[in-house]
Design goal:
This protein has 374 residues and is α/β, with parallel strands linked by helices. Helix content is 25%, strand content 18%. Among the domains are: 101 residues, Ubiquitin fusion degradation protein UFD1, N-terminal domain (Barwin-like endoglucanases); 87 residues, Roll (Vcp-like ATPase, Chain A, domain 2), CATH 3.10.330. It has nine helices and twelve strands. The strands form three sheets. A six-stranded mixed β-sheet has the order 2-4-3-6-1-5. A four-stranded mixed β-sheet has the order 9-10-7-12. InterPro entries: Ufd1-like, Ufd1-like_Nn, UFD1_N1, UFD1_N2.
């Protein structure tokens, strides 16, 4: 009798589902003691204390370990995996994006319980910035980022890092989608990925003045992405209408900042005809019929999309004095004077030999070849 009763009571005990459930105070990973774990913020895994590992080891928990995170303050729910069991007792450390998703602050109470989620087959994302379009292969980047995630939940806006830049991604749809969880497991499964237009993206067919993947409307171009034809051959000043721009600049200037006469480095006074020649030279460069010397030098303001690299070099005609000095310098030789040889000349050698033959006192050698000691 007792044996039958004990056997009857043991059957429902073995079939009863074992579940881990506990309460912890949540804190961001940035407040975690020890070495910096900034990379853990770009994943979906949490840090639990060692006591949680002891409890889980006594339960028949399927792998990978998945947990439901529920806020006691506002009942917000999300899901995630576990990275390490190194947190202080009574604490759990979460990535920053999970804290923002749950809308909780440091020290808030969370209910963490184990759960089972189906393997994901399809996920649709919405990039939170048009900068995501700059990534050449977004699917490969996300596939690499999923190594730090265990779950994907509808409505979560997680973050991942690529090329030292952080991108936000919102989960719009998952399949299979359970009505009570709206989350899937992304560990050891093949997931089909689809993307919605990024936040702030405008279709090129309806908007032509944005910067990301859309046509840019500039002077000389139409609203489409087809470039404008090249301008006719001519000088750059003519192609941009520099004469009109310079006239507008001169008219807008009211007072000359720099005034006075010119001076030469030689100290001579500048002749009026030289000043007139400089004015004429400026007219030739600018292409104006008249020049206002009282105008301030103003920056050249070109329409958007045009560049100006200056005028062709036109040398200034030298004055009469400068031409005279140049001719004198050309006539004067660059090198003048007599040369000297380092070797002794032949005449000097003959003079020394004749003096020795006449009985003169020969010159003592500076360095004797032999020294005799008595």
């Amino acid at each position: 009798m007792f044996g039958g009763t004990a056997q009857w009571g043991a059957t429902p005990f073995r079939n009863r589902t074992q579940k881990f459930q506990d309460y912890y105070r949540c804190y961001p990973i940035a407040m975690m003691p020890g070495k910096d774990r900034e990379s853990a913020n770009y994943g979906g895994k949490i840090f639990l204390p060692p006591s949680a590992l002891s409890k889980l080891s006594m339960l028949h928990i399927s792998y990978p370990m998945l947990f439901q995170l529920k806020s006691e303050e506002n009942d917000n729910v999300t899901y995630g995996g576990v990275l390490e069991f190194i947190a202080e007792e009574g604490r759990v450390y979460l990535p920053q994006w999970i804290i923002e998703t749950l809308d909780v602050g440091p020290g808030s109470l969370l209910e963490i319980s184990s759960c089972d989620l189906p393997l994901g087959k399809f996920v649709k994302f919405e990039p939170q910035s048009v900068d995501f379009l700059d990534i050449s292969d977004p699917r490969a980047v996300l596939e690499r980022s999923f190594q730090n995630f265990s779950t994907l939940t509808v409505g979560d806006v997680f973050k991942f890092s690529y090329n030292d830049k952080t991108y936000g991604m919102k989960v719009l749809e998952v399949k299979p989608d359970l009505e009570d969880k709206h989350s899937v497991c992304c560990v050891e499964t093949d997931i089909e990925v689809d993307f919605a237009p990024p936040v702030g993206y405008v279709d090129p067919s309806t908007q032509s003045d944005s910067n990301y993947g859309r046509a840019i409307k500039t002077p000389g171009t139409s609203g489409s992405s087809t470039p404008a034809p090249m301008a006719a051959a001519g000088t750059m000043a003519q192609s941009i209408g520099y004469s009109k721009l310079a006239q507008q600049t001169i008219k807008s200037a009211s007072k000359n900042t720099f005034s006075g006469g010119g001076q030469k480095l030689s100290g001579k006074a500048v002749k009026p005809e030289e000043e007139a020649s400089l004015d004429e030279h400026f007219k030739e460069l600018v292409g104006l019929g008249s020049t206002d010397t009282d105008a301030n030098p103003q920056p050249l303001r070109l329409p958007f999309g045009q560049l100006f690299f200056g005028f062709p070099l036109v040398p200034v005609k030298p004055s009469e004095d400068e031409e005279t000095q140049t001719e004198e310098q050309q006539q004067q030789p660059h090198f003048s004077g007599t040369g000297q040889s380092l070797r002794e000349s032949r005449k000097r050698k003959e003079r020394n030999s004749s003096a020795g033959a006449a009985g003169g006192t020969p010159k003592k050698p500076t360095s004797p070849e032999m020294v005799v000691i008595d």
